[in-house]
Amino acid sequence: MGSISPVLMWAQASASSSGGFVTLALKRWYAGLTLSHPEAAPTYAGLWMVVAGLAALFAFGVIAQGPKTAFRQFFDIFGLADLVRAALSRLRRAWRVVGVAVGVSVLAWTASQSMHYTDAQGKADMLLLTRSRSVVELAVEHATIVGATPLRDVVGLGDNFALLAIATIVFFQVGTNRWDGSDLVTRLLGDPLGLRAHVCWIMVALYCIYRTIVMPAVGVYALPLGSGGFFPEAGLVPLLAAASDGVMLAWVVVELRNAGLSDMGVERFEPRESLLIWPLAVLTSVLVMPARYVAQLIILAAPYLPALRPGSTFARVVAHLLGWGLVDLQAASLVVLGLVGTLAWSGGSIRVWLRLWRRLMSQSAARLVAFLALGWVVAGFLTSISYVLILSLPPQAWVLAAADGYGHYITLVTGLWIASGLVELGEQSLPVADLAETEVIVVTEILLEGTVIEA
User: Fold this and answer.
1) What is the mean pLDDT of the segment spanning 296-309?
2) 1 lies in a domain?
3) Is residue 454 in some structural domain?
4) Distance CA 238, CA 134 (A)
């Protein structure tokens, strides 16, 4: 961190008492999607930001449903219990996505830990975090702020090397029709998703290369501020990250959707179903994890920005974005989190996607708030226990990374459960005729070896 960028200097100048915490919070978010507090003094400001985000979502529900219906639905314990059971049942049937996501994440974290087990910067970061706050205070801070990123590990699967490599191979095969066997239907109707498949695997492959070659070159605990003067990188990397995140999100919601149709024989993995909704999945990833891409954009553009006077308007805006602004963005994104549930049933149509979201808000917005609040409590409680147990160990180079890693294991599972509940609410927002049509289309696509036939 010897040559820190002007942007980070502005951030530290605007909050000189906590400059090191601004940088550390940014590093943890950029490298591992661990959203943390950028202030030196213990604070629970993140708690109120998440509450404000849920309150804003509830306000939308009051507008869409009416005050009486919204409040009755929010306090409907039995309705919430039914949603929890339905989400767990759907997630249990989606064994493939759970097994692959958890298994590959464990392998990736273990490999990362083995390579950086003795990195001295890890110990320095832990000592910085615990210098002005107790372990319990630190754990509670992380538990409260987890509510701003309920799907951080579901969307963040796009950072996993193994999954990126698999996606590259799969969509390359789809683009070249090697798995279609050149059947009669494909030859007669053509391949409407072929070009999209090629765009998809190229973008995923480029991001995989960036994650495995460029970022390790500067170290896990350092900020990747450029890769040798390649200016387009500042705009290209966030775009590639969103494309990769969209691939993984599309796969997850399709698996969760099909798990609810298992009685109709929808069992095997069909990459074309994910490819069909991939563009919308990319947009959804940006909307539900905006701080991820904003941080990437600012960090990578920092070496090319002119030096500005500390205290200027632009410097203050950037400093806020790299500090509490990331938490603000994530808390605000809770308002549109329901788009994840309607994505699964959109068929790739933005009009259907938004129409179903409006129906979801008018039918289940208050229940969505209650469900997200419950998920926040569960994830926060388990995460706080994990942080207390691990951070109570003597300071070592690996302790902070281990605490973050186990916290992500918890939020990966809870994130999959929350995504399952969102898909369940998305299904409930479908008109009966649309639901029947969706089931027929899904089965038809499978019978036709993944060929998409638009109605």
Assistant:
1) 72
2) no
3) no
4) 35
**Does any domain span residue 44?**
yes
Q: Shortest CA distance to 150 belongs to which of 411, 387, 425?
A: 411
pLDDT at 454: 37
Distance (Å, rounded) from C-alpha 292 to C-alpha 33?
8
Read off the pLDDT of residues 363-387 as tens digits, 9 standing for 90 and up.
999 999 999 999 999 999 999 999 9
Strands (E), 132-226: none
DSSP sequence for 399-424 = HHHHHHHHHHHHHHHHHHHHHHHHHH
- What is the rounded CA–CA span in Å between residue 420 and residue 258? 11
CA atoms 145, 146, 151, 154: torsion sign: positive
What's the length of the chain? 455
Q: Which are the contacts of 166, defined by CB distance < 8 A and separation ≥ 6?
A: none
Q: How many folded domains does the chain comprise?
A: 1
Query: Which residue in the block uniquely carries the two structure tokens 């994830």?
Result: 379
Q: Which CA distances in Å does 119 have to 30, 107, 122, 126, 391?
A: 18, 19, 6, 12, 17
Mean pLDDT score, 208-214: 83
- The pTM for the full model equals 0.85
* Domain membership of residue 168 as a residue range: 6-447
Q: Is 2 exposed, middle or buried (0-12, 13-18, 19+ CB in 10 A)?
A: exposed
Is residue 453, in this structure, part of any structural domain at all? no
- N-term to C-term CA, the chain: 56
- pLDDT, average across residues 39-53: 86
pLDDT at 302 over 80: no
Query: What are 27-40's pLDDT values in tens digits?
Result: 888 888 888 888 87
* Mean pLDDT value of segment 346-359: 92
